[in-house]
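Narrative summary of target 7.
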Amino acid sequence: MRIVIAEDDPLLREGVALLLRAESLDVAATADTPDAFLAAVDAHDPDVAIVDVRMPPTHTDEGIKAAVEARRRRPGLAVLVLSAYVEQAFASELLAGGADGLGYLLKERVGRVEQFLDALHRVANGGTAIDPEVVAQLLTRTRRTSALDRLTAREHEVLALMAEGLGNTAIAERLVVTEGAVHKHIRNIFAKLDLPPTDRTDRRVAAVLRYLEEKGHLS
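Modeled conformation, tokenized:
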């Protein structure tokens, strides 16, 4: 796995690089600006990019814009976004091209090495990894009338775990139920969110994006 890191905080940037190299992962380059990051992506053709949301010069959304451009240049590039806190619209642009190979973690998660590495590998393998704290905050937001109101409490739990990027087996283990029960809940979620089977749309991704959007996380 070849990795490029884009982070303007030198301590975090070098700390993450050291951690990954200690795990025998190939950190091809590190960058402290969006331009340097994109140059590194062009030069090294990485499998995964770890990108800070807020980068110079304005420290707003330069990291997200650079990640979008990197995926335009390198279709299929996996991106793990890091942020100091929950951003209201952290990846609407990034997710517009599909959720495969995308992750969003709070920076505090980096210190929890096992969880950080699990998210990194999940994203590198084409999956999705959403920080549990993001999902927790979404669940505490004021509810509004939507298709999500049709879901039962258990279906909300299943969809929240889907939003974290967990597969059916992991969801079953987390909720201490059978995989068959999880399949049934997911079928009900698809039906209640009006997501019929189609060759053009991944219903699992569509359900998660609907969940994030209607809970006020994407704008």
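The longest strand covers residues 26-31.
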